[in-house]
Specification:
By secondary structure, this protein is mainly β. It has a single domain, classed as Lipoxygenase-1 (Sandwich), CATH 2.60.60. About 10% of the residues lie in helices and about 40% in strands. The protein has three helices and 15 strands. Strands 1-13-12-3-10-9-8 form a seven-stranded mixed beta sheet, with helices on one face. The chain is globular and about 65 Å long.
Length: about 220
Amino acid sequence: MVDLAKKQSISLAKQDGGKLTKVVMGLGWDAVQVEQETKKGGWIRRAMAELTAPVANSIDLDASVGLFDANKKLLETVYFGRQTGAGGAVQHGGDNLTGEGEGDDEVIGVDLEKLPASVHTLVFTVSSFRGQKFADVDNAFCRLVDTSNTAARDPNVAIGAGKELAKFALTSDSDCKSATGMVMATVFRDGTGWKMTAHGLPGSGRTIADLNSVIQAAL
């Protein structure tokens, strides 16, 4: 597994040297912990407030992917509102509205062998549907997992049985804090194989459609 830096590219290959046929892009995040205000009042109320742990506001981030041809033309988009694309080769795992729980919060599976030849580049984005800024997000990451050896069609299941190829911390740069959207990474054809580039390009938008100018900069 490779921890990617911003703008770093790697060739994608199975760890055992075999052919890479299926991958899942996972997106994970936590909400920033917020200290609760200690309210004035009787000793019981004050004691209860002191015992209350910091709370996390729910954060609704959405993973999406745009499919582009070699001329940078958008062919189709897969997101929470349209969860299947490329004739079933791309599958969204569903919408997580809060970011609660450990590990990946949203996933997108891609069957590389079943992708139409017209698809040259996959652009993976994250956006805040409620307009919450990344300053309100902790531990955001994306990771690409090799799921070639699992028969599971549900990407939520397949990612747990796969082998991590690369991981990228999304919100480590200060210029991301005021953003509401971001191009996370691209996966693109390279000869007979595939490569991945970590981007972390911030933008403003609640959906992938709002991030078009940032996406074009990544292509």
